[in-house]
Hints:
The chain has 9 helices and no strands. The longest helix is centred in the middle third of the chain and has 30 residues, at 134-163. The chain has helices at 5-29, 55-69, 75-82, 85-101, 105-128, 134-163, 176-200, 205-221, 225-254.
Amino acid sequence: xxxxxxxxxxxxxxxxxxxxxxxxxxxxxxxxxxxxxxxxxxxxxxxxxxxxxxxxxxxxxxxxxxxxxxxxxxxxxxxxxxxxxxxxxxxxxxxxxxxxxxxxxxxxxxxxxxxxxxxxxxxxxxxxxxxxxxxxxxxxxxxxxxxxxxxxxxxxxxxxxxxxxxxxxxxxxxxxxxxxxxxxxxxxxxxxxxxxxxxxxxxxxxxxxxxxxxxxxxxxxxxxxxxxxxxxxxxxxxxxxxxxxxxxxxxxxxxxxxxxxxxxx
Length: 265
């Protein structure tokens, strides 16, 4: 059992409220501000449409359930598995948001890369566990699978904002080099969303959906034909693969290979 278990749980509650407050302010009260990550100040050729950022609402809702469930759920998973990683994630995520707001794009890029480490550590912990507990599936597996995929998306956006932030408005056109790197990045994300999450991630449908959702958002947002159609085709392919995985899980259930539908998350 981890040291200071009560401190971990109390800290989880406070940092969750802190992160929630920061994102609510940025996403709602500051939505039209050019400083908001949801308002589009740092335009890139890999940025999705604003509606894509609505995934934060689902993540926050599920994480809210986590900070409640931690008091009653599997204490070994919460205290030894997740441990202080959730505190680290939320503080780093909030720091990224502040740096992004204040145009420190290189620093925000470094911070978001660091953030992927504790997120991936939690993700690895939940992937090693086999369990059909519905509460664990909903309040631990699902939110951290969504969070893992979303942080990776933010990391890609931050990379282009830091090093290829040359999109001035919606009518701008990318250089050939930028266009090539955008296509490569979209291919990497699509591969991660299918092979990475669905196959290596033990059927992580939640993470795959986040990537597909993002790809649709890029297709909607970007006017460049190469980027638009690349994102759209990859989104459709990802959706087909996800649907196939869902069908396979349903078949497995009927054959009593009880793998939870969203808990492969």
